Amino acid sequence: MGGQYIKMILVMLGTQNNSFNRLLEQIDNLIQEEKIQEEVIVQAGYTKYKSKNMEIFDLISKDEIQRYQQEASYVITHGGAGSIITSLKYGKKVIAVPRKHEYGEHVNNHQEEIVELFSKKGYILGVEDVKDLEEAIKKINNIITSQIPEELTLKHNDYETSISTKELNIQFDTTNAVNNAYKVGRTGNLLQNDLTILQTKFQKKQFTLNLTLDIESLKKQLQDISGKLPDKVKESSYYIEGSNLILTKGETGAVVDVDKTASEIIEQIQNLNVKNNTIEIATEEKSPSALDIDSIHSELYSEAKDAYFTQNPYSIYPSENGVDFAISIDDAKAMLKEDKDEYSIPLKVLYPSVTTNMLGTEAFPNLLSQYSTSYSTKNQKRTTNLRLAANKINGTVLMPGETFSYNKVVGERTIAAGYQEAPIYVSGKVVDGLGGGICQITTTLYNAVVYANLEIVERSNHQFVPSYAPASRDATVVYGSIDFKFKNNRNYPIKILCSVQNGIANFQIYGLKTDNDYEVVISNRVTGTTSNAIYSEAYKILKQNGQVVSSTLLSQDVYKRH
């Protein structure tokens, strides 16, 4: 009797002395009509029936019957409580056909009563007449679970929502209930047994369907609903807007009574009464938490932290700004005594004594790269623009993984910022424009960044090849539209130093050299020309000990001809 049965129906007739051929005949017919296509194993007991369509055993060991129960797709059984109990224990769907006294299949009809009780509850699928077995087989996959919808509808006044039952992992424990049913008609003498059975029919004796579910998941879903109620409690809150802390008073409202609502849901599921029912959400009134100035100040306040570095191990600790109330705590408390829905407390920034940019070159011990370009000192306005842009960048420190944005650091080029009219490229022409010349600063920085082997994030070429850099070695910017960005892809911070003086714009990038650093070479060439355009490309070549390690395309550019 070995073997693994993938699709198999187990038929259990128990150990009663009476035959139950009526059931087996019907199953046999359904097999012949191909209404049943699974393999059928029968534990027949004292029922003597021969069939070429089923594998029939009289009495088999407990271990064997349990194995078959575990392997079966579902179980067809007589109305014996023992067979029902063990099948449900293994989580099997059960079709129960009661033995009947009128056919000589049992001494009484108590199996009918047991089957009726539990089929009404949805624990099993009961079949009164074997002729209905075919229909029962079609329905078997819908037992119990079909009575639990995927979502439960919950209501609070005019508000309606739902929760998912899939997340609750609902499991029914029918063993205890069937054990109780098993006791019906099994105690006392025959007269007492029949009386008990009769009483269950007319008194509607009930048995409890035990279930387990993920109570934490249920409570979490109910707590989430609390925040969605139209009349929910509005908690006191605060947030920073500009240089002010905005405090808002809360409002009394409703919250879900999680325990009470959860209990009601469990009861409804237990009674298999949730298919089309709407469950009322139990709520309770709750007042918002009071605004606590001391707690808010404690949470908000932070000290300014000075930047510093250590040599062994090498590490730079950047500066951090702090924040505090711009008024005293007592004044803030006095403000809350006013009858208002919203309050504004001014804030102040606490600045460190030593910023990260103030750290000297001793904190950045090695020159990683430098690059210079020349400019004419005759155009004072253009020179002014170069110096303004360079001064914004000078001293910038980038931590590992941090991205530099030229437009963000330099800012908008405005008259208020000191920028002057100087030549720029506009629509293929050279005209005077505010901030003219600063792209030379961008270009100089770009080359220094490439030589430091930092990661280029965003770079664009000019319309024309500029006078201060060869093709594919330049970088242009336009505030609000075109930016130059790069990322510090090293494991340590870097510092950018720059100067504009005596006709030379110079950039230096400092940091900590490691054994993994390479010598960087930039190779650029013009790849083609037309009457209107110049085509070029540039490569970044990495060398170590004089040997080429890699060659990477930096850019492919197209320029207009003058």
| Count of distinct structural domains | 4
Low-confidence stretches: 1-6, 188-209
What best-fitting shape do the alpha-carbon axes yield? elongated
Q: What is the assembly state of the chains in this entry?
A: single chain
What's the average pLDDT?
A: 87
Query: What structural class is derived from the secondary structure elements?
Result: alpha+beta
Number of helices: 14
Based on CA atoms alone, the radius of gyration comes out at 42 Å
Q: How many DSSP E strands?
A: 31
Cα-to-Cα separation, first versus last residue: 94 Å
State the strand order across the main sheet. Answer: 3-2-1-4-5-6
In short:
With 562 residues, the chain is of the alpha+beta class. It folds into four domains: 8-143, Glycogen Phosphorylase B (Rossmann fold), CATH 3.40.50; 145-172 and 209-238 and 246-290, Ubiquitin-like (UB roll) (Roll); 293-357, no CATH class; 360-560, no CATH class. It has 14 helices and 31 strands.
Q: What would your notes on this structure say?
A:
With 562 residues, the protein is of the alpha+beta class. The protein has four domains: 8-143, Rossmann fold (3-Layer(aba) Sandwich), CATH 3.40.50.2000; 145-172 and 209-238 and 246-290, Ubiquitin-like (UB roll); 293-357, no CATH class; 360-560, no CATH class. A six-stranded parallel sheet has the order 3-2-1-4-5-6, with helices on both faces. A four-stranded antiparallel sheet has the order 11-12-19-18. Helix 3 (81-89) runs antiparallel to helix 6 and helix 8 crosses helix 9 (258-270). The model is unreliable at 1-6 and 188-209 (pLDDT under 50).
